[in-house]
Design brief:
Length: 73
């Protein structure tokens, strides 16, 4: 985890034929509200947040964050 909890950093080492290559990855971590705000700012017309793929509420019991975004046609 990055010091300010804004992301996750990983280092992967791929070894093939005796040669090693290192890959560093950084993933941003967003709260539900931050993700919703970014989608709306990008021009999405409606965003709903759910706590799983079955449409459970996004609350402290959620197993994941699922965002359903709709673009106005």
């Amino acid at each position: 985890m990055v010091d300010d909890w804004s992301g996750v950093e990983n280092e992967w080492i791929l070894v093939r034929d005796g040669r090693a290559r290192t890959f560093r990855l950084r993933l941003s971590v967003y709260s539900g509200q931050e993700l919703k705000d970014r989608l709306l700012t990008a021009g999405i017309s409606r965003v709903n947040l759910y706590g799983d793929l079955d449409g459970a509420p996004y609350d402290r019991e959620a197993s994941r964050l699922v965002a359903v975004a709709r673009v106005a046609t």
